[in-house]
Amino acid sequence: MSAPVRRTGGRSAAVLSAIRYAVEDLVRERGAEKVTIPLVAERAGVNPTSVYRRWGDAATLLNDIATYRLDPDRELPHSGDLRADLIAWASEIVEHYRKPLNAAILRGGSASAGEQETECLRNRRAEALVIVGDAGPAADEIIDGIIGPIVYRAIFLPWTLDEDLAVRLVDRLVPA
Amino acid sequence: MSAPVRRTGGRSAAVLSAIRYAVEDLVRERGAEKVTIPLVAERAGVNPTSVYRRWGDAATLLNDIATYRLDPDRELPHSGDLRADLIAWASEIVEHYRKPLNAAILRGGSASAGEQETECLRNRRAEALVIVGDAGPAADEIIDGIIGPIVYRAIFLPWTLDEDLAVRLVDRLVPA
């Protein structure tokens, strides 16, 4: 008898991908607050039980899906110019939330936030700290000066996410 | 500046008050994402139709209720010291969201935000502009430097809303 092999690719990756597409379709069609786990499971063609087991509720699922497009393994800006790198990194987040779908998913997911730090936030903060190293602004300054205002505008003032925002915010932390 | 007396009429004021208490009870009991208009109407002893007519959906109702405790007619700090006034004003917002109930209502309400500016945000921004007058930071600086980071932390990092936050944020806009 051979030992059971744990499969991490193949089927589970396909299930995850089907669930992501189902969430995005449903957010587009109905708005984030109308997305439920049974609807997602039906659209993705998977068993609702396995969706509940992994995410617990729709808001947590949305929170998780909202962040996957900003691939945490993607290459970060590293020109050697701290200010330019921070602007490039912040612009990417602004661009992400300029897409109404991503902002809608963020809004739906924020309902489940607050009991623990979201994976999205952990990833963004970790990225910023890689970029700034020991020389630049501290983690709190990145949160209060860049991530906080961008996400606040994405949730409450999405029409103000203009192309200059990243530059304006970084200018206040790392003057030109 | 004394607050004008606002008469909203006996019965409608009583209904509004019953609805507010019902929302707060239900958020405490179930969490904001489980609050529905039929539940609120039943708890408040009012007709669901009238709740739907005024707010449309539960997220909009939560958004509205989340803000009423920061009475827009309350007296604003006006010591003549811009920095001290901004710190007093920002501290009041931080204190508001340090209460888990207020943060939970904010999270539930943010699901409905984004299609129009919320009344809360309009009120907070208007207050800030009254405080700073022509001399102080511009509206965008108030949003990005104070309101954004406080609300972001209230939603995603509520345990970091410490008593120094208001001072730290104002320090960056109006150095001591």
Task: State the main characteristics.
66% helix, 176 residues, mainly alpha, homodimer, 0% strand, 9 helices
Shape annotation of chain A: elongated
Number of strands of chain A: 0
Largest sheet of chain A: none
The proportion of strand residues of chain A reads under 5%
Count of DSSP H/I helices of chain A: 9
Question: Which chain pair has the greatest contact?
Answer: A-B, 34 and 34 residues
Q: What is the mean pLDDT of chain A?
A: 82
> Helicity of chain A, in percent?
55-70%
Unreliable residue stretches of chain A: 1-8
Instruction: Report the structural category of chain A.
Output: mainly alpha
Distance between the termini of chain A: 66 Å
Secondary-structure element order of chain A, N to C: HHHHHHHHH
Query: Could you state the oligomeric state of the chains shown?
Result: homodimer
Q: Please state the CA-atom Rg of chain A, rounded to the nearest Å.
A: 18 Å
Question: How would you portray this structure in words?
Answer:
2 copies of one chain form a homodimer. The first copy, chain A, is an all-alpha fold and 176 residues long. Chain A is 66% helix and 0% strand. Chain A contains 9 helices and no strands. In chain A, helix 1 crosses helix 2 and helix 4 crosses helix 6. Chain A is elongated, with a radius of gyration of 18 Å. Chains A and B meet through helix 6, helix 8 and helix 9 of A and helix 6, helix 8 and helix 9 of B.
